[in-house]
Design brief:
The structure holds 2 protein chains of 2 kinds. Chain A has a 5-stranded mixed sheet with strand order 2-1-5-3-4, with helices on both faces. In chain A, strands 12-19-13-14-15 form a 5-stranded parallel sheet. By secondary structure, chain A is of the alpha/beta class. Helices cover about 25% and strands about 20% of the residues of chain A. Chain A is built from 15 helices and 25 strands. Mean pLDDT of chain A is about 90; it is low at about 190-200. Chain B is of the alpha/beta class. Chain B has a single domain (about 5-130), classed as Rossmann fold, CATH 3.40.50. Chain B contains 5 helices and 4 strands. Chain B has a 4-stranded parallel sheet with strand order 2-1-3-4, with helices on both faces. Chain B starts with 6 loop residues before the first strand and ends in a 6-residue tail after the last helix. The mean pLDDT of chain B is about 90. Classes of the chains: A alpha/beta, B alpha/beta. The interface of A and B includes residues 561, 569, 586 and 587 of A.
Chain lengths: ~600, ~150
């Protein structure tokens, strides 16, 4: 530790700390325009110049990269320092008079109209001030090495190699992130080829998935993380004090032995872009229900503010029910939850904005406890309910300030008229559909599906949580669309079923099993390879095959294949089936 | 009296039998000509059962199992799909039209498909007419004593 004096204040800091950091610790502000904690001090703006006095000698140094030495005295506001700062700021002001950060810094240092006229005067508000932060970021932090300086003196500029788009640029946006003037910008074009004002979803590659996530720790999106494309950056690891960030962590397959499995794999949202008439993915301000839900979330991209893509409050909001559900072209079933969440949306829009709210419904299905009451309350709140499925959404209704809004075309079946409703924002209530990989999952567990594609329960009324496979249970939207209370009910029931089997300690199994009658077995081993469970073993000393009854599931494949009929399938013996056959063929004609 | 085909249906417990059950629960109408025998898996169906059915006077036999990949016992229906074509060639040797033996995949959710398959099969057998084997059938055929 060394002690230095800054503007008369004694500061104790570690050796080799820069003057800038020491001053920061002492609470003394030193102006700077090219410094960032992301990378090594660069010392190009010279604005942090301070006067260092050692003994009788005084010299001007840049605070950002000058290390402290014991007994050093620093003046950050002496006449000489002020003179230098004024000169630098005036030169900058004369060249980039309209750049916000330059003007602000000049204002803070109390510097007025510059004395100089620059040949390179740039009136742009987002002109490049050659601070070099982007170049340092790209070379030191990201290590992509795409940005660099060309020329010297007044011709100096930030360039890409050969002024061409570089393959080595990973489009991480770090340069735009540090650019103080906005000269470098990330222009996000989503798949619609439009520029969204905000993107729904995580904004950084390292993020906490949701506030309710268990465990609530950040995860890294390896697809967009700089470290995973260039091997550099590691900024998060540098700032993480407990050293909790581990880039080497890999996905791993863990094998766990369990006796019972609960399938609660949830649902996917119907992709509304399949219904072109609603313009989802094509028109601005047409949202799916989950997108709108994330907009409502106070930790979401808009902080819970309901706004159109240009950031304004919508004047009218249309909520369209049954997108992809109750529709023979897509899903014939009712998605069950949409009516109620649509009402919730309406309630929140009414609460947070002064927008007009229109609901386009086929039938209102307020089926649960307290739901009908909520529906009546919403009607009293002044929501406009239009009975009729919207036919299409078109761009139209140019408002006074020249921004397009949307128009919903529909037939109001209660008044028997076609109507066109203007709306700044449209929310589509997408159907709940089985997950894309549900077929693979159900095959893994030998579970059937119902015609709608959801997992099939053993019995719709008497056994709605079990499946045809013993020990495999289902709950929630994996079994069919349902709301939270119903999901909790079903999941609790499944958990109770699972616990009851655990408590019992032993499991009853079906008596349907295969058995080898050893006296008939010729030891041909034909059955051994047929058994999918490996339940048949060959007893070498007896020269016969033997069925392990604990492993056998009773399918009977071996019974059908045995050339000497030595295997009996209990419950489905050859004699039983042949007797059944004979019984069925009994003639009643004569 | 018009010819009413007698068809024996071998249905696997997990998919086709449940599918047939669903057809019934859903009140889907289908031809009453298929007489169902339940097995745990279509892989249990011994080719001898099919031959015995024809011998006892069945005009057609339909074997139904889970769709490939859906077998409750993982691969029982793959055994079936290998056995039935052999069996079709075998019954040709006995002078039985191979169209009288049919293999279909019906899942537990396909009640309507079960009805459709049953109706198609019944119509096909109706067109083919009664099965006449050159065996002395009456001796084998059980008679319900009233």
């Amino acid at each position: 530790m060394v002690t230095i004096t800054i503007d008369g204040k004694l500061v104790e800091v570690a050796e080799d700390t820069t003057i800038l950091k020491a001053a920061e610790k002492a609470g003394i502000w030193i102006p700077t325009m090219c410094h960032s904690d992301y990378f090594e001090p660069y010392g190009v703006c010279r604005l942090c110049s301070v006067e260092v006095v050692r003994g009788k000698r005084s010299r001007i140094v840049t605070a950002c990269n000058f290390p402290v030495r014991s007994g050093m005295t620093v003046h950050t506001n002496s006449g000489k320092v002020k003179w230098i700062r004024k000169l630098i700021m005036e030169l900058m002001l004369s060249r980039w008079p309209n750049v916000r950060v330059v003007k602000e810094m000049a204002g803070r240092l109390d510097i007025g109209t510059p004395r100089f006229a620059s040949l390179e005067r740039d009136e742009a508000e987002d002109a490049c001030i050659l601070c070099g932060m982007c170049v340092n970021m790209c070379n030191e932090v990201v290590k992509a090495g795409v940005l660099g300086f060309a020329h010297t003196g007044i011709k100096r500029e930030v360039v890409l190699p050969f002024n061409e788009r570089s393959d080595r640029c990973i489009v991480c946006g770090a340069c735009a992130h540090v650019c103080p003037t906005g000269h470098i910008r990330m222009v996000v074009e989503d798949y619609r080829g439009k520029k969204p004002e905000f993107t729904l979803g995580p904004k950084t590659p390292i993020y906490v998935p949701t506030l309710q996530a268990v465990p609530r720790v950040p995860v890294i999106d390896t697809g967009s993380c700089i470290h995973f494309s260039t091997g550099a950056c590691e900024t998060c690891a540098k700032v993480c004090e407990p050293n909790a960030i581990n880039y080497a962590m890999q996905d791993e397959t863990v094998e766990i032995e369990v006796g019972q499995i609960l399938l609660a794999t949830g649902f996917d949202l119907f992709d509304a872009s399949a219904m072109a008439q609603y313009g989802y993915g094509r028109l601005d301000n047409v949202y799916s229900s989950l997108e709108f839900e994330s907009m409502l979330n106070s930790t979401g991209p808009t902080g819970g503010k309901i706004q159109t893509k240009n950031g304004r409050e919508p004047r009218s909001v249309a909520i369209i029910h049954c997108i992809g559900s109750r529709d023979t072209n897509h899903h014939p079933y009712c998605s069950r939850v949409c009516c109620m969440y649509a009402l919730k949306f309406a309630h929140l829009v009414r609460d947070r904005t002064s927008a007009e709210i229109y609901q386009f419904y086929i039938d209102m299905r307020a089926f649960g406890k307290g739901y009908e009451e909520f529906y009546s309350r919403l009607l009293d709140e002044g929501i406009t309910m239009i009975r009729g499925k919207a036919a299409e959404i078109v761009e139209g209704c140019w408002s006074a300030n020249g921004e397009p809004s949307l128009k919903v075309r529909c037939e109001d079946t209660l008044i028997g008229r076609f109507r066109e409703i203007p709306a700044d924002m449209v929310i589509l209530c997408n159907a709940i559909e089985p997950r894309k990989d549900s077929d693979a999952v159900r095959r893994l567990f030998s579970v059937s599906k119902s015609p709608d594609g959801f997992f099939l329960e053993r019995h719709p009324k008497l056994d709605p949580t079990a499946t045809s496979t013993d020990g495999v249970f289902i709950a929630g939207c994996a079994q069919g669309p349902k709301d939270i209370p119903d999901t909790v009910t079903q999941a609790s029931s499944a958990a109770a079923r699972i616990l009851s089997l655990i408590c019992k300690g032993e499991v009853e199994i079906e008596p349907v099993r295969a058995m080898v009658q050893e006296e008939y077995c010729g030891g041909c081993k034909m059955c051994n390879g047929l058994c999918p469970y490996g339940a048949i073993e060959f007893l070498a000393e007896k020269k016969v095959s033997h069925v392990n009854e604990a492993l056998c599931k009773g399918c009977g494949t071996c019974v059908a294949a045995c050339p000497s009929s030595a295997i009996t399938g209990h419950g489905f013996t050859d004699q039983q089936i042949l007797a059944e056959l004979a019984g069925l063929m009994v003639s009643t004609d004569r | 009296m018009a010819f009413e085909p007698k068809i024996i249906g071998f249905l696997c417990n997990w998919c086709s039998y449940t599918g047939a059950d669903l057809a019934g629960v859903s009140r889907i109408k289908s031809a009453p000509n298929v007489r169902v025998i339940r097995t745990m898996c279509s892989g249990r169906i011994d080719p001898a059962f099919v031959l015995k059915a024809f011998q006892l006077g069945a005009d057609g036999v339909i074997v139904m199992g889970c769709h490939l990949g859906d077998c409750h016992y993982q691969e029982g229906n793959y055994k079936t799909i290998r056995r039935i074509p052999f069996l079709k060639r075998l019954i040709q040797g006995f002078g039985i039209d191979p169209r009288r033996l049919r293999l279909e995949w019906v899942s537990a959710s396909e009640g309507d498909r079960f009805a459709q398959v049953v109706n198609e099969m019944t119509e096909e057998i109706r067109k083919l007419g009664p099965l006449s084997l050159h065996v002395h059938r009456d001796a084998q055929q059980p008679v319900l004593h009233q």
